[in-house]
Amino acid sequence: MRKYVLLAVLACITALSVNAQTKDAESKADRYFRMSKVADENPSDWKAQLEVGHILLDKEGGFYNQSRAARYYERIYHIASDVNREIPDSVIRETNWVLMTLAVGKGDIERALFYIDEMKHANSVGVGIEDSYLNLSDMYGLTCCMGKEDCIKALSYMKDLRDRVTQSHLPGIEHTDLTTAMLLEEVFELEKAVFGDKLMELTIDGKKYIVVSMGEWDIEKPFIGWSATKEGSLTLFYGEDGKVYDNLHGEMNYSFFCNKDGIVPHEESNARLITVTPEHRQQMVKAYRNYMEKRTTK
Fold it and tell me: Cβ distance 202 to 208 under 8 Å?
């Protein structure tokens, strides 16, 4: 995947700072040791975990420690995962956001992506998370995935961001067009690298046929664009007898299921992708050209 410079959130990641409220009658040190003891002895008390987390992320409180703070926010995350526990949406949002930003700051991209996806999942099941947080999360995810050259997952974050911006009628979506186009190009290149030399084989009435033209694709191109509809396009098949057919009767079925033994096709599935020798492919190219030449001269 090409490396593109994306001026986004990863350009300057700073640790989240939470201003802790202290009681006049209690020193910061006494409060920290008291609350950390309560939190450690009661790991299911999300309020105690949150208060200690705030203390540990207060840069001016004297106990600033990101790694230790993550421990308490992790507890809140696990508490929130229990459907029988009720935690305010704002706390769930803060928890995922803190854990995600801390993971990014430590360079743990996989962990950061985990919390991004968890935040989006929480929103999908009814936790109220503002679009601004979700949009920034998608930006984090997009940038992280581009950095690790995962164009498919990066495109997924970009699509979610564009969909949300469109639904919210926010301006400026055109500024994402170039990056979206770049990611699509990367996905097409990946598809070409993996499947470009493949051909589709069908079994009809016990005989095997290889598709040599379908949609916007034909045998002289890499195997891309075959599923796209195109007015006037031909679906042509190369038979075992070396002839090209355009009037085969039967349906194309391709489906599979997964069981304990692995992935297997359904009984009615009659299509698969194959690789042929260069000599065999050249024979099909020649037959396809001859067919198209005769067709145009009629």
Answer: yes
Helices (H) and strands (E) in the chain, counts: 9, 8
Q: How far, in Å, CA of 32 to CA of 53, rounded?
A: 10
Token representation of residue 177:
């067009």
Residue ranges covered by each domain of the chain = 9-191, 199-297
Q: Note the pLDDT of residue 5.
A: 40
Give me the residues paired with residue 202 across strands: 209, 271
Q: What is the CATH number of domain 9-191?
A: 1.25.40.10
Gap between the Cα atoms of 68 and 288, Å rounded = 67
How far, CA to CA in Å, does 121 sit from each of 116, 144, 159? 9, 18, 16
Beta strands per DSSP E along the chain:
199-204, 207-214, 217-218, 236-239, 244-245, 256-259, 262-265, 271-274
Q: What pLDDT is attached to residue 12? A: 39
Give ∠ CA 159-160-163 in degrees, rounded to 5: 85
Round to whole Å and give the CA distance between 292 and 232.
13
pLDDT tens, position by position, 101-150:
999 888 899 999 999 999 898 888 888 888 988 999 999 999 999 989 99
Q: Distance between CA 89 and CA 84 in Å, rounded?
A: 15
Residues in the chain: 298
Residue type, 144: C
Which tens digits make up the pLDDT trace of 201-218? Answer: 999 999 999 999 998 899
Residue ranges of the chain with per-residue pLDDT less than 50: 3-24
